[in-house]
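Subject: Protein entry, chain in single-letter code together with its fold tokens

Category: Structural biology, sequence-to-fold work with a learned token vocabulary.

Notation: Tokens come from a learned vocabulary of local backbone shapes, not from coordinates.

Start of record: The labelled sequence and token lines come straight after this line.
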Amino acid sequence: MSLHLPTLFLLNVYVLTLLGCLMLHVWWRSDGESTLGCSAGTLLLAGLGVLVVGLRGRGMDTLSIMLGHMLLQLASGLGWATMRVFVGRRLWWPGIAGGALLWALLCQWPYFMSTVSLRLTVATLLTILYTLLTAGELWGARRLLEVAIGPVLALLLAHALFCSGLLLLSGRHDIDWIWGGLDDGFLTWRLLEAFLFIIGMAFATLAMVRERAELRYRAVAYRDPLTDIGNRRAFTAGSEALLVRCAAEGRPATLLLCDLDHFKRLNDTHGHAMGDAALIAFGRLLALGIRQQDICGRIGGEEFACLLPGADEMAALQVAERIRRACSELLLGTEVRVSVSIGIASTAQAGYELSRLLALGDQALYRAKAKGRNRVERFTD
């Protein structure tokens, strides 16, 4: 296969610069997502480095060898930094610039400047090092990341293996002749693979950032901003899925419907800030008072709900009483106390339909209010 090397250089410069500008635009529109900023810098530096390297043979050999490869190594370091930022780590500038600085130092050695094979070996080894460091950042944080990192790891591994293979093959031959103009030599294949790798990494990085942003937006959409527990949408979606599983497994489930007593009076007497404090305190109490497999959420102004899978009425009654007592012990400010009324309904009465459970739980809650509040009532026919 024969490829025209100057055309490949120009294609690299054009596409990398275009992608870098587009990534820069996306970074600007994303309110400064650091990962996209680092990725844009990687693409632009790589495009500039390829352009400078392509000047070799046009009377600027020293500039091409020294500055061009320094820019490429700096791009590799910034590519590593992109994944460091993505996983939540700080930029480490000595490591980012280390490859470029090492190249600059080696260029002061006459033998290094006069030996093509040595320069290519060093450049390839640095590329492999930065590639493995980049993969290590993602692999080390894989348990904390909620996005798919498989495509990026596959790209990085393939890139490292390709560079290692070329390095092993070049060790068997004298590769100084590649600067003589052969289009199908080591440099051509190295340039083509690096071109495809950087494009793939740009799109894969953008996909990871977008996926994480969507997950964050979804989490915000399903959280109550005041109490930081699930909102009505989250409770409904989670409870319906949980009831389907309980029905399939033949397990019971019980609903607790909670309503803070005299909440309007609390707001009118002590102000909305105190009312918000009561909601926050009760939401925290509720989240800490249930099991990990249970679902709770704020479904109205001062109304909260909990679904307890695998719990019958008696077990749910104990949980509800514990929550009620803990609420009555809450002290807001220096003298304000709150209480809660709780209605209980189970799948033994309502079946596995959430709307029916909520309706029966509401009837039980109304009975608790009617009997004086600060109490727990079960639904009875």
